[in-house]
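Final report, Chapter 2: Outcomes

The project's central promise was a pipeline that accepts a single protein chain and returns its three-dimensional structure in a standardized token representation, suitable for archiving and comparison. That pipeline is now operational. To close this chapter, we reproduce one record exactly as it appears in the project archive, with the input sequence first and the structure output second.
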Amino acid sequence: IEDDSIDCIVTTPPYWRRRNQATEGIKATSQEDFLDELKVVMSQAWRVLKPQGSLWLNLGDDTTDGLVQCIPWRLVLDMIDNQGWHLVNEVIWNKIKTSPQGSQDHLRKVHESMFHMVKSEEFYYNDEELRHTYALIFYNENRSRSTADKRHRQSGGTQGIIPSDVWTIATQHSGTTRYRVAPDMLYRLPIVATCPRNGIVLDPYCGNGTACRIAYELDRHSIGIDINAEFIRQARSSIEQKPLSLF
């Protein structure tokens, strides 16, 4: 991929220690090697991203012997310190519910972090389209709103709701062997906010192509990369089933 050619990167790398080694691209046998592999990919993300582009990185954490390992923050801080990235926001993805967790010495975890990172302080950001999409997702389909929610909506005026940095989005089930599939809305919001129409979205861990499909639906181009040929086939198939509106 050419230098400075991608408008927006949205990606969800595999979990550390919770992945199918036969189908995932990360083969590290230690946490340090896992982070090192991700750092290499993020350095390539820096290379191909346009100066005004954005990276949205959703990365799950790991718990060892009941202790949180802070893997996402270890990676993000290294990217800031050693690769030149700037952190715009840490978005908390509230997944609402997760699989049962049997531990009795710490709280049940129902969130992950999504980091919005940029190369330059002068980055593309479509606040109007983001507000409109955010309103449709979180408010228009929910008729029962609290008083606080109503005041929050009014604060956005005619432009729509001022988005918060906590996104409540339920997880999606997958019909494939992949461990998980990030929900559509986790990709839709970053793309409408930071990729212009006809821009290019990249997902270097694309799986069955959710980011590419959402980009297509939003009149953006996309590039998806995955080591699993079956996932690539499924991704192509999901896009080919949609009416041609872009090419």
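Archive annotation: The radius of gyration is 18 Å.
This record, like all others produced under the grant, will remain available to the consortium after the project formally closes.
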